[in-house]
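Internal ticket - ligand job 470, 2-acetamido-2-deoxy-beta-D-glucopyranose:
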Amino acid sequence: MLFLTALSVLGYAQGLRVDRNDIAIGNVENLAPKPQTFLDSLYGELVSTPESHQFKQKLLNTGQVQQFQQSQDISIENVDIQEYIRHQDKYNQLAAEKKAAQSHESYLKYQSKLKLPEDDETDDLVEAKNMFGGIITFGGLDHFNCFSKEDSEAKREIDIAIVGAPFDTGVSYRPGARFGPEGIRLGARRIGGASPVRSNGNLDSKLTHINPYDKSNHNLTVIDCGDVPLTPFDNRIALNQLYRGERAIHRHKSSTKKAPKIITMGGDHTITLMTLKSAYEQYGPINVIHFDSHIDTWDPQVLGGGISNYMKLNHGTFLHYAAEQGYLNKTGCFHVGLRAPYIDDSYDSNHDKECGFQTINARQIDVLGIKGIVHQLLNQIGTEAPVYISVDIDVLDPAFAPATGTMEIGGWSSRELLSVLDGMEGINLVGADVVEVSPPFDSNSEITSLAATAVIDSFLGLMIVKELYY
Ligand SMILES: *[C@@H]1O[C@H](CO)[C@@H](O)[C@H](O)[C@H]1NC(C)=O
Ligand SMILES: *[C@@H]1O[C@H](CO)[C@@H](O)[C@H](O)[C@H]1NC(C)=O
Ligand SMILES: [Mn+2]
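stdout (structure tokens):
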């Protein structure tokens, strides 16, 4: 047995022997363009040229690089059995290494067989999706101009529209949310496919079957409408532009014969007044679930003093106006994740109730848990009433969403928010937004944009699962 092993090592050692003629000193012609290294054989002409071999040889000759010689420190010309026994471990090791190298090499050679298309072929370039290139839509969804009155566009069906509202001239603190839609789309470059965790942790959830980005999964038309162009110079004009943009989308036909559902990417929170206005025209008073660390129902007299009409409407008062305009179904509106201080304690809290809101505050998650919160929301709202979810990204803790207008410490994790959202599987979600993402304040890992992207992914799941299963 030992003898046989020794023999095979000898045979193998023969193969390893360095042929001194291969590293002929100063004889460049002998080597160019051969011999081929493994790398040469993989990449062919790309790396293996007569010039490259000459250069390699020059380096060898001057001693700047050394020829790699695995067998150098073991003389293998005539290994006798005594020698083998003395160095048995070394030989065995060498044999194992050689075997591993050979099998890996042949595997790579097999893997690297490459057949390139004809030079004039471009079909693959037309069809291929690129995670980090191309004109960016949310999750690579199709785009067309949803606001156009041209028949070729106005008559196209939309079941679910994603649209940007680049607006940040209603903020009290940090601006920058005008870049929100762009940031959220950047966060969605890698998104796609069914997600095994879509759901609130319940593996039997129908949500786990949903892939919003593959039409064959649901047969619904999901479109990225781009952004409504909004002027930065006059909020009255900008908000009207947004209203007309949303209304134009709502007027598209859909395959379900219902009004298209719209997911709006803010923008500061002021924009929600216009998205609610357009949704209200379609559905009547709406149950709004408002994820935010702030109430946003502030009486304009309290927030800012209401000195001029123009300043009264801003990102902290828009829900006051939504209530005043009758857009809210006051029996089913919630603040969720609330934690910012009031400005005028008892006045704000009473006014908030008058606007129709019940509250589940940020820390109640530690008492109620995800399930308790979801239960409370579903119990009130049910699966029929039209629901609008507005997510101010500042509902998350600044650890998860630092890039926002008005950060408040002690918020939820992104997982908690996603689980509560997905937990509402079955609700009649007719519209939604995610607002207050301010990419200029984000970390360079785009953490806040990424969280907002996931929120929209969750909205898509909720909207689609309702059409398919409930
Ligand atoms: C989508 O439509 C095709 C063709 O009508 C049908 O075969 C398929 O079952 C549909 N898929 C879903 C999820 O409804
Ligand atoms: C208002 O919401 C409640 C549930 O909170 C629902 O029962 C009722 O039908 C809704 N009203 C309208 C007009 O949708
Ligand atoms: Mn807000």
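Auto-summary: Confidence is low (pLDDT under 50) at residues 1-33, 69-73. The first strand starts at residue 160 and ends at 165.
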